Amino acid sequence: MEWEHLFDDLEGQLAAEWDAERAALDAESERLRISKLSLHERLRSMAGDQSRLLLELTGGERWDASMQTIGADWIGVCAGDDRRLRLIPVTAIESAAVDHGTLLSSVADTRVEPGLRARMSFGFILRDLARRRGPVTIGTRGADPVQGTIDRAGADHLDLALHDLSEPRRTRSVRGFRMIPFTAIAWVRIEGGASTAL
């Protein structure tokens, strides 16, 4: 009888040690998985449920925004009560403040395969806006926002025809042109109805 208690006790200790070791391995695996997460992947998890976040951008702007969509290297948000879509390169985000639940869910192991939109680069979207000829407002990292129509978008920059948003892009309404490197762009706000296609 005493031997049975001894063996039961040893089995219990061994099972407890295995459980503790398994828990330590699981915790280390989770730390390793989280260490490989990018900001983009965490933001992607917020786009599905239109999470609210307070964005601080490199140009010094702060927006209370809701996530709408996400691409390969950009996010699409609506700021405050403004329903116009703003495209923000992920590199222009200085910080994103979220509630604790959203923060924790952004590290959850979802492993969702991104769709076609998630593979569209910032340059690809800007080239599409140039093709559509819709008016935009562009905020840069160090200057006042500029308004006009994107005439063309290259590999790393765009050409913007400057004009009032109330007028269509016509030769007589264009006040000038700007070549803007993608790296200088903090955000692009799509004016009018062009954002519904994204």
UniProtKB/TrEMBL annotation:
It comes from the Bacteria. This is Uncharacterized protein. It comes from Microbacterium esteraromaticum. The lineage of its organism: Bacteria, Bacillati, Actinomycetota, Actinomycetes, Micrococcales.
